[in-house]
Design a protein that fits this description.
- This protein is an alpha+beta fold.
- The chain is 60% helix and 9% strand.
- The chain has helices spanning 2-15, 72-75, 83-89, 140-153, 156-172, 183-210, 212-218, 223-226, 231-251, 257-274, 284-314, 321-324, 331-351, 356-361, 367-371, 373-402, 405-425, 433-453; strands spanning 43-52, 55-63, 78-80, 94-97, 102-110, 113-117.
- Helix 1 (2-15) packs across helix 4, helix 6 runs parallel beside helix 10 and helix 11 runs antiparallel to helix 13.
- The protein is globular, with a radius of gyration of 28 Å.
- It starts with a helix and ends in a 5-residue tail after the last helix.
Length: 458
């Protein structure tokens, strides 16, 4: 099932890969030489061994901004692609031998110098030239580019947050006698990580699909907003992620009722948050409740109960039906759930601070729009610093009582995170988008750190 999950996403990345021209397409019936001014504004070029009708040409020529066409010695029998064709293909300008129907020359941009040589690069035949090349090999560079687009589409900081939180909760609930390197533990953890990351991809992807106009203002670098991925591709990715995530989490032998509850509740809340007509993100209070519920109660109670049931079964322990509802869980899990519920509130508040421009333009009445960015960011920082210092104090007291070094290390890491958030906040102008976003990402780094320290608090 894991191979199916990753294979499906890999297939989506492969769909848009460009083919290599390894056989000859049909030549164009009416070859047309386009003016150089439509493809090249100003450059100095070296023409080296360009094969045109079996004639080897070696020459050097400078072209200026007033140039209207390339020399006939070079272009005879060739067709130059337009800027639009080049941008759609995502590669440098090329010359296409319309008579022979094969690629003869490619341009490699070296600043103001362009060297031309016979090469083979990913290309489609020009419009009217018989369509795409029928015999294909996948372009490694195009595949890597599409995989990177999917990675950016997943919102990597949330994926890393999911990986760290789920892993830390499984380690926190690891019962005596079960090794974290055992095959069973790794299977349980891998199953939970895969299903949770797929649901995470569904939630973040759905939010981007419904926010394309807003993201073009607030986050133009995102794949959908920038056009690196089409809306259709985004929909395909989120549908595949939802189906695979739920199938993996609900039907396999490694599942449990707490895990099923966690995945379904996360998907439902993520859908209600983004999808019209409900679209809870329009209202600041409901938006904060959704984010804090998922990052706080749902994930921490759900995955802790799943780990306790799954790993406890291996050691002869279990929670019974109380664990399904999150009841009867150890006190440490209850405290963790409350701590990260507060963290979820802070994330919900801070994430809207850099996005005021687009939110205001499209009628999203976030707390930052209503109350001001400075007040909201200051409150989010105060909330996190206070909760971190309180947790560090409790861990320090527990370490002193039990005389355990691991809890002391957890207390130090948690206290450092709280102080770091306060110190970093001093130099941040909340009305500056880049500074506010950088502080928001620092908040996520402290989020990771707190989860790294969590297993030390056992």
């Amino acid at each position: 099932m894991l191979r199916v999950a990753f294979g499906a996403l890999f297939t989506v990345a492969c769909v848009q890969c460009r083919p290599l021209a390894d056989i000859r397409p049909k030549p164009s019936a009416n070859p047309k030489l386009l003016p150089a001014s439509k493809t090249i504004a100003h450059f100095s070029t070296n023409l080296v061994n360009v094969n045109a009708r079996k004639a080897s040409i070696s020459m050097k020529r400078d072209f200026g901004t007033k140039a209207t066409a390339l020399p006939t010695e070079l272009t005879k029998g060739f067709q130059i692609e337009t800027k639009r064709q080049r941008s759609e293909r995502g590669h440098m300008p090329v010359l296409w031998d319309v008579k022979r129907g094969v690629l003869r020359a490619g341009m490699r941009n070296l600043g103001r110098d362009v060297s031309m040589k016979r090469t083979a690069i990913p290309i489609e035949s020009p419009k009217g030239g018989g369509g795409s090349v029928p015999g294909i090999r996948w372009s490694i560079s195009a595949l890597a580019r599409n995989l990177k687009n999917i990675w950016d589409f997943s919102r990597p900081h949330t994926v890393i947050g999911t990986l760290t939180s789920v892993s830390a909760l499984h380690l926190l609930m690891l019962p005596p006698g079960v090794s974290p390197l055992s095959n069973y533990f790794l299977q349980v953890l891998g199953h939970a990580l895969t299903s949770s990351v797929l649901i995470n991809l569904y939630i973040t992807g759905l939010n981007q699909i419904t926010d394309i106009p807003i993201d073009k203002v607030n986050k133009p670098q995102l794949p959908l907003a920038s056009g690196a991925l089409s809306r259709t591709q985004g929909i395909i990715i989120v549908v595949i992620s939802l189906v695979l995530g739920l199938s993996l989490g609900l039907t396999t032998s490694l599942t449990s009722q707490p895990l099923q509850f966690t995945l379904i509740a996360s998907a439902v809340l993520g859908t209600l948050y983004s999808l019209p007509p409900i679209r809870l993100k329009r209202f600041p209070l409901t938006a904060a409740v959704c984010i804090s519920a998922v990052r706080g109660f749902v994930i921490n109670w759900g995955f802790a109960a799943h780990a306790f049931l799954s790993l406890g079964a291996a050691s002869g322990e279990g929670l019974g039906m109380l664990g399904v509802l999150g009841l009867g869980m150890p006190l440490k899990v209850q405290l963790v759930a409350w701590f990260y519920t507060v963290y979820g509130i802070a994330i919900a508040l801070a994430k809207d601070v850099p996005d005021v421009k687009g939110d205001r333009q499209f009628g999203i009445k976030s707390f930052s729009v209503r109350l001001g960015q400075d007040k909201v960011l200051a409150f989010a920082q105060w909330l996190l610093t206070a909760s971190h210092l309180a947790a560090a104090t409790a861990l320090g007291a527990a370490a002193w009582e039990a005389q355990t070094m691991t809890r002391l290390l957890a207390a130090i890491a948690t206290g450092y995170a709280g102080v770091s958030l306060a110190v970093r906040r001093r130099g941040v102008d909340a009305r500056n988008e880049s500074e506010a976003y950088a502080y928001y990402m620092h908040l996520w780094k402290m989020f990771y750190l707190s989860y790294f320290a969590l297993p030390l608090a056992r």
